[in-house]
């Protein structure tokens, strides 16, 4: 799908605030923490007609619409690998005593010349596992799967796409293993839309963040047993 939308209110991949509130009406969470890399930090390039808030802020705002007292902490740092997310963010996340966490890491590992899927999976497990053991509900997000600068060769772009699909598969398996919630954006219908990416062709823009937030909120709604269109796995 290569549709071009000029306003997020009319973008079917986004979600209206009232619908987000309806889906999260039974949300029990009071402390929300985010761990991750560039994708979890944002905000990405602006996109006309779309709000500038990155997806974690949008999810927090939706949760606050039903839980005004929600405490929110975003620990994500740009250019972080999964190892760096674990080493620099996990302890702080545990100290925050969250009851809901979002983990979005591994994207920078995929971009490395020395990507090791097994090592990345191990580091992600070392993030998700301790959070779950502490009683935290964990949402694991795998990034959109088409991102790569247009200046790269088709062969390089294909390698990155395969790696991103592999990351989605590994995070899905980790979510099953640890009883976490998975949101795999590489299967999202908007993944092939070029206008979800910023000027570098790799990081998502404001529209991409709006879509990622909607996918996460819809998935949380399904987890809570609320009727709503589920996001891709």
Short synopsis of the structure:
With 233 residues, this protein is of the alpha/beta class. The chain is 43% helix and 11% strand. The protein contains eight helices and five strands, in the order H-E-H-H-E-H-E-H-H-E-H-E-H.
The sequence of SSEs as H and E is HEHHEHEHHEHEH
Arrangement of strands in the largest sheet: 2-1-3-4-5
Report the portion of residues in β strands. 5-15%
Overall pLDDT confidence: 90
Rg calc: 16 Å
> How can the largest sheet be summarized?
5 strands, parallel
CATH class: Alpha Beta
- Oligomerization state of this entry? single chain
Shape: globular
Protein name: SGNH hydrolase-type esterase domain-containing protein
Domain SGNH hydrolase-type esterase: 34-209
Care to describe what's here?
The chain is α/β, with parallel strands linked by helices. The chain has a single domain (12-223), classed as SGNH hydrolase (Rossmann fold, 3-Layer(aba) Sandwich), CATH 3.40.50. The protein has eight helices and five strands; from the N terminus they run H-E-H-H-E-H-E-H-H-E-H-E-H. It has helices at residues 17-23, 38-41, 55-64, 82-96, 107-111, 117-133, 154-178, 206-223; strands at 31-36, 71-74, 100-104, 137-142, 181-184. Strands 2-1-3-4-5 form a five-stranded parallel sheet, sandwiched between helices. Helix 7 links the parallel strand 4 and strand 5. Helix 3 crosses helix 8 (206-223) and helix 4 packs parallel to helix 6. Mean pLDDT is 90; it is low at 228-233.
């Amino acid at each position: 799908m290569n549709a071009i939308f000029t306003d997020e209110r009319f973008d079917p991949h986004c979600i209206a605030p009232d619908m987000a509130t309806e889906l999260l009406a039974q949300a029990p969470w009071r402390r929300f923490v985010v761990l991750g890399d560039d994708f979890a930090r944002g905000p990405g390039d602006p996109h006309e007609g779309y709000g500038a808030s990155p997806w974690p802020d949008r999810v927090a705002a939706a949760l606050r619409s039903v839980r005004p007292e929600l405490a929110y902490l975003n620990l994500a740092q740009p250019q972080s690998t999964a190892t760096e997310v674990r080493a620099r963010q996990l302890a702080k996340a545990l100290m925050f005593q969250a009851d809901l966490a979002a983990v979005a890491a591994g994207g920078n590992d995929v971009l490395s010349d020395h990507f090791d899927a097994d090592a990345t999976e191990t580091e992600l497990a070392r993030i998700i596992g301790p959070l779950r053991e502490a009683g935290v509900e964990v949402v694991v997000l795998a990034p959109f799967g088409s991102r790569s600068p247009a200046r790269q060769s088709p062969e390089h772009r294909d390698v990155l796409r395969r790696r991103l699909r592999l990351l989605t598969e590994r995070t899905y398996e980790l979510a099953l293993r640890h009883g976490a919630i998975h949101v795999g954006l590489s299967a999202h219908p908007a993944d092939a839309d070029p206008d979800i990416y910023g000027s570098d062709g790799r990081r998502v823009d404001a529209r991409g963040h709006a879509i990622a937030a909607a996918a996460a909120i819809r998935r949380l709604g399904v987890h809570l047993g609320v009727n709503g269109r589920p996001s891709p796995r």
